[in-house]
Amino acid sequence: DRAQKVMIDIAKEELNNYDVIISDYRMDAIDGVLINKFLKSKSIITLFILISSFDYAEIKKHIDTLQSKEDALEEDTDEYLRTIFSE
């Protein structure tokens, strides 16, 4: 509903104030983590507590997880291409 959308927009705006340089793809994943926690609680107070407690360690943990998934996917793709072209 409209109130929920406004609160999510506020959350995203607050998140954008963090000095973390990462791609949109990764930021979306991190936004998702925060917003999902917020939606489960359905409370604007929880939203701001989450934002104020959101630290670089948590961001880095999610980046590292995504990076290792990306790396694995890249390796699989490279291996697949080598297989095709070696035949």
UniProtKB/TrEMBL annotation:
Keywords: Coiled coil. InterPro entries: CheY-like_superfamily (IPR011006). Residues 56-83 form a coiled coil. The keyword Coiled coil applies. This is Uncharacterized protein.
